[in-house]
Write a structure and sequence with these properties.
The protein is of the alpha/beta class. It contains 12 helices and 14 strands. It has a single domain, classed as Ribonuclease Z/Hydroxyacylglutathione hydrolase-like (Metallo-beta-lactamase, Chain A), CATH 3.60.15. It has a 7-stranded mixed sheet with strand order 6-5-4-3-2-1-14. A 7-stranded mixed sheet has the order 7-8-9-10-11-12-13. Strand 10 (240-244), helix 8 and strand 11 (263-269) form a beta-alpha-beta unit. Helix 9 (271-278) runs antiparallel to helix 10. The structure holds zinc ion.
Length: 356
Amino acid sequence: MTTHQPLDNAQATAYRTRVTLLGTSGGPPWWDGSDRAGISTAITVNDSVYLIDCGEGWGPRYRKAGLGPAGFQKGLDDLRGVFITHHHSDHMVDYPNLLLLAWHNGSDGLRQPVQVYGPGDRRVLPPIFDETNRDPIPEVFNPESPTPGLEESTARLLQAYALDINDRMRDNAKQDLREIFEFHDIVLPGTTGDDPNGDPSPAMEPFEVYADENVRVTAILVDHRPIFPAFAFRFDTPDGSIVVSGDTGVCSNLVTIADGADILLHECIDMDWVDSLLGPNSARPDPNLMQHMLAAHTAIEEVGAQAEAAGVDTLVLTHLVPGNTPVEKWQQAQQGFSGHLVVGEDLMHFGLGEPR
Ligand SMILES: [Zn+2]
């Protein structure tokens, strides 16, 4: 077993395979006193980069991390794949930036179209939380398509920017965006997940989403109820394996997909913060809502046992909620985990395999 220590940009380039934390905060709020960007991670193998989630601020971090060539209208040249774990805004809000700014930041240098994968249509509306106490009952937004998947969401986003897209193609001779990106809804195997309002993460084996000469990417459903589908991804590379939990409560599928991984990047929530918002001594005690938040996320006290059960070498905490909880507090996640724990910071890299 090797442990993986955080590296800076220069140290990281010695490794053929590396993970880069672009943004490490979770949740849509802007956290006071935190300069963590929104959740986003990059995995580099040889000279191909795979991006996981597009939280707020991923683009400038991508550039600062040195993941592509520097220079005017350069940067995304090595991007090969994009994988969205689930359709919550904090994971997607800077996805339009990827589509619209690629032209101006390196799409000319791409060696092939970027393959973009994300959850498909939920098909069924999520239940109304605490419905008996709700007045008014919320009206369905966009009832003709209230739960779109990645392909449809992308088409609608691009429609919204049609003027810019036509302008750039006609006035600046930019390449057709439809040749730069290819979009894919992730198809669940067999009858898995047929009831999105039932068990959101029925026991299953990881299934293949994507493969090329650098990586094999597999996915599994995790428990981020009522969001469905919500995925964890595993990247198997020639130098080892990396698992990205996405957002999840304690969930056996996460242990399944993370089995024996070299690096597990896992979300985490500070329960004391939840308690201060909704606990019995808070201004607005709400045990139901508290339970609801807990089911969808993994507490500091719980994450170590997940990593231990999976037998991972290094556990890296990311998607930290709230983004301004002190590092010393997150370090309590070592509890129940005999491996190496790192509290993630933006722009940390980790190398896999031997340096070149
Ligand atoms: Zn989420």
